[in-house]
Specification:
The chain is built from no helices and 11 strands. It is 0% helix and 55% strand.
Length: 120
């Protein structure tokens, strides 16, 4: 069992920065691919950024490329999302997701989310 806890959200002005963290419990964190998703009011949850278990591969939604950076520290069981040049349209609840297939069984975990609000 893995538990994910996000932190670092808050209120920031447009053009500002925030760094989200997702702390994971469990010994198998380093084997999980990790993603960040977000959900704005009245909209579906959307993919923001992802990082492979080793950290060697990352990918981003077009809307955040060049502004957001995902990273991880497996020694600390933590994944990060550095968000720069924030825009009002980045306002959403941000969720951390971890997923892996172990011995043919898929595992998928979500955090409770952290609110990010960008004022214009």
């Amino acid at each position: 069992q893995v538990q994910l806890v996000e932190s670092g959200g808050g209120l920031v002005q447009a053009g500002g920065s925030l760094r989200l963290s997702c702390a994971a419990s469990g010994r198998t964190f380093s084997r999980f691919d990790m993603d960040w998703y977000r959900q704005a009011p009245g909209k579906e949850r959307e993919f923001v950024a992802g990082i492979s278990w080793s950290g060697s591969s990352t990918n981003y939604a077009d809307s955040v490329k060049g502004r957001f950076t995902i990273s991880r520290d497996n020694a600390k069981n933590t994944v990060y999302l550095q968000m720069n040049s924030l825009k009002p349209e980045d306002t959403a609840i941000y969720y951390c997701n971890g997923h892996v297939v172990l011995v043919g069984i898929g595992y998928d975990y979500w955090g409770q989310g952290t609110q990010v609000t960008v004022s214009s």
